[in-house]
Write a structure and sequence with these properties.
By secondary structure, the protein is of the alpha/beta class. It has helices at residues 9-31, 45-51, 80-89, 108-120, 159-167, 186-191, 205-213, 241-244, and strands at residues 2-6, 34-38, 61-65, 67-69, 97-99, 126-129, 152-156, 180-184, 194-199, 231-236. It has one domain (2-244): Rossmann fold, CATH 3.40.50.1360.
Length: 248
């Protein structure tokens, strides 16, 4: 794992985009295409602003969603499909494919089967992600499932994770936050050749410390990132305060 302390959120997004673009181009040059995983949240705002301006042949890129709430449509402003369509898919030139997670599918088992069949055939070159306040990656809240080999699974969301969605302004009340989500599993996330993990804000400082120092276990999902040599952890100064101190 490589740690970079960025000046602010905008610099963090720029650095994440630069690294991601380099890795995507390398994959295209090597095998003619690239497969990526795209995340959502406040941590990714600046990233997508920069990716949208990238000099890149997006027609050779396939993107997989990281997670989605169960039961809300893609027209819901807090849907991850809504977020990614507006901030990423519509901003890049002719994306090869975007494999959305249909969280409001009538048959969720069939949706999982569809997603798992699609991604099992692919080698993921780059996965963009963040870390939740409770240490989750994807929506793998503690205690996370470290055993499943299924690429996508249905999970129950921990209350702290749901409260984070309210505090960040995605939902007005806790009652409106869905209790379940479809998420990429921990093992599937770690299969990506390279991970680019962006974590801003002081409220994430404890989760960053968890990632760096806690025992790797189902109670500290983000600590599993330490097993990946090709993982870039990008932090702003407030998020790094418990591992680096104030370096200004």
């Amino acid at each position: 794992m490589r740690i970079t302390i960025c000046e602010d959120k905008h610099d963090m997004g720029l650095q994440a985009a630069k690294l991601g673009i380099t890795l995507i181009k390398e994959a295209i040059e090597k095998k003619g295409s690239a497969n990526i995983v795209v995340a959502t949240g406040l941590s990714q705002f600046s990233l997508y602003a920069h990716l949208g301006k990238a000099d890149l042949d997006w027609s050779k890129v396939e993107a997989f969603g990281l997670n989605e709430y169960v039961g809300i449509p893609d027209t819901h402003p807090s849907s991850f499909r809504y977020y990614l369509n507006n901030r990423f898919v519509q901003k890049v030139e002719k994306l090869g494919a975007f494999h959305q997670i249909i969280g409001d599918a009538e048959d969720l088992d069939a949706e999982l089967s569809r997603l798992n069949t699609l991604i099992k055939e692919k080698e993921i070159d780059v996965a963009f992600l963040g870390i939740g306040e409770n240490g989750h990656i994807g929506f793998n809240d503690p205690p996370a499932n470290f055993e499943t080999n299924d690429p996508y699974i249905i999970v129950e969301l921990e209350e702290r994770s749901r409260r984070q969605q309210v505090s960040e302004g995605w939902f007005p009340t806790l009652e409106e936050v869905p209790r379940e989500a479809i998420t990429m599993s921990v093992r599937q996330i770690l299969k990506a050749k390279s991970l680019i993990c962006s974590v801003p804000d002081q409220r994430k400082a404890r989760a960053v410390a968890m990632c760096m120092y806690d025992q790797i276990s189902v109670y500290a999902p983000c600590a599993a990132l330490r097993t990946k040599k090709e993982c870039a952890l990008l932090l702003d100064r407030p998020a790094s305060m418990l591992i680096m101190g104030d370096r200004r």
